[in-house]
Every structure is written in C-alpha cells, then in structure tokens.
Design a protein that fits this description.
Elements: E1 21-25, E2 31-35, E3 40-42, H1 48-51, E4 68-73, E5 77-82, E6 87-89, H2 93-144, H3 148-154, H4 160-163, H5 166-213, H6 230-241, H7 254-257, H8 263-269, E7 292-294
Antiparallel strand pairs: 1-2, 2-3, 3-7, 4-5, 5-6
Length: 299
C-alpha cells in the first residue's frame, strides 16, 4: 500500500503490525522490530512504509523520510541516523537536501538564461533578415516602375541583361515575397517560444528568490537520550565527515548476542509473534548500533 499525502498523516502506531512482526524494546527503552518471517530485527517500523514519506521531496515541515531518525545525546547533542544506509551524521539532512536543491536550481537557471539569450539573438537576426528582404522588395518594385537609379543601385552586380529584364525582376520579387512569408511564420513561432522561455525563467527566478529568503525552521522535541558512548559518537562522526558508513561493531547475528542474556529473556526474544512477551529487551547493548540483522535459527 503506497504512502498517501494528506493534511494530517496517520501515525504508524495507529496501524497494526504486519503478520509475523513484533515490537520490542532494549534495556534503554528504545523500540525495535522483529520480523519472525525472515528472522531479522530492524530499527525501522514496517508500518512507516505506509505512513511516512519516501523521499525528502515528499516531506512536509519537519518530517523525515522513511528510514531516518533524529535522536539526542547529552554530550554531542542532536544527530541523525540513516537506518537504510547505516550511517549517522550531525548535519540536518533536510538542510542538506534543501541546499542541494538550491544548487541544482541555480545551475538549471543559468542554463535556462543562456538558452533564452541565444533564442533572443536568433530572433533578432531573423528580424534583421526580414527587414533586409523587405527593403529589397521595395527597391525591386521601384525598378518595375522604371526607376533607373534604383535599378542600377540594387542590381549593380548583375549582368546587363538582368538589369533590364522585367521577367527576371518579377521572379526576384516573387522569390523574396516567399522568403518574407516564411520568415514571418518563423518569427511568429520564435516569439511564442520566447514568451514560454521567458515565463519559465521568471518562474525559476521566483522559486530561487523564495528558497534563498526562506530559512529552514524545524520544530524540535527532545527525544530519548541515546545510550551510545561518547567514543562511539566520535567514531561515528569521524566516519560521517569522511563520507564512510560506520562499521558494524559486531558482525555476529542478534542470536549470538543473546548468549549473554538470561534464559527467560533469550527465550522471550525468540518466541513467535503474538506470545505473552509484548515488551522484549536485548541484554547486549551492542544491538543498539545495528540497523538490522538476522537473529539466527532456533538450533
């Protein structure tokens, strides 16, 4: 079921979890989700695919798209988690997306202005050609009326027989008349295209002015403090600055992490959906740094 934009979107908690899914919490109270069908865990609520926008372009106000989470740490402050790409960053991704859109818009505006300038130049050239041909037609018509001075001026480069050949002059006039009609049609079409291009450039300029003047304002509600240590935050931030994904602190499955838990907790975590353990917890805090992972078989 696709995400549907509306004035007020439904919260994921208002919808039931898909069949085979279960909601759980770690010892710090952070919610994660268990898919018993594929035997995997995930930080992403499967219902978010219905209720949340899929891209930053679909977001309204301070929304974040599917897979993104904003959290808070007492030492480093606010930071953002991209669960899909398994990266963290201090920079607001909404501001980054906006800056990228502004950059692309300015580049496109430059291209559009250059195209408009070239179109205007071509339009002026055709106008000059039309004026020149119309002037030639006037002089040729004067020649037909016996204006010897105009005859010698316009056709000074032609042969002597062409200067005084009425049929030749009529042919020249007819040829120029056709060119005038063709140029007028081309000019009318180019004028319409110019109007569309000018309107498009004006629209882009207006959008650019609005994007430059409006500052991104985000309402912020302080979330639950993160249990990640300062060293982990520093490590994550270092990877973010270098454009790399944070390495997974443990490559083992979530099932192997349960080995340090009590039997009751391990049993409850691997219990099928719908069992009495509605609020499950991981004993190992390392699970808080994994976006998703197979939690192993029951063997």
């Amino acid at each position: 079921m696709p995400w549907v934009s509306s004035g007020k979107r439904r919260d994921s908690s208002e919808l039931p979890l898909p069949a085979g899914w279960e909601e759980a919490r770690d010892f710090d109270g952070r919610v994660f989700f268990i898919d018993h069908n594929t035997r995997q865990t995930s930080w992403i609520d499967p219902r978010d695919r219905i209720t949340k926008p899929l891209t930053f372009a679909d977001c309204v106000g301070d929304e974040l798209p599917l897979g993104w989470e904003v959290t808070y740490d007492q030492q480093v402050g606010v930071y953002y988690i991209d669960h899909i790409n398994k990266t963290t960053q201090m920079e607001n991704p909404r501001a980054q997306w906006r800056q990228e859109q502004e950059r692309m818009l300015k580049e496109y505006l430059v291209v559009a202005q250059e195209a408009l300038s070239a179109k205007r130049e071509m339009y002026l050239i055709k106008q000059q050609r039309l004026a020149l041909i119309q002037q030639e037609m006037v002089l040729l018509q004067q020649m037909m009326e016996g204006d010897t001075h105009s005859l010698n001026t316009v056709l000074s480069g032609s042969s002597s027989s062409a200067k005084y050949d009425p049929d030749q002059i009529k042919s020249e006039i007819s040829c120029r008349r056709e060119r005038v009609c063709r140029l007028k049609q081309e000019l009318a079409q180019m004028k319409q295209e110019l109007q569309y291009k000018e309107l498009g450039v004006e629209t882009l300029q207006e959008i650019d002015r609005k994007m430059s003047s409006v500052r991104l304002t985000i309402s912020w509600t302080k979330p639950r403090p993160s249990s990640l240590s300062w060293a982990q935050h520093q490590e994550e931030h270092q990877y973010c600055r270098e454009g790399e994904a944070r390495p997974d602190p443990e490559s083992g499955s979530a099932y192997s992490k349960l080995q340090g838990c009590s039997g009751d907790v391990a049993t409850s975590l691997l219990a099928p959906a719908g069992s009495s353990s509605s609020c499950l917890q991981y004993c190992d805090s390392a699970c808080q740094t994994d976006s998703s992972g197979e939690y192993g078989s029951l063997d």
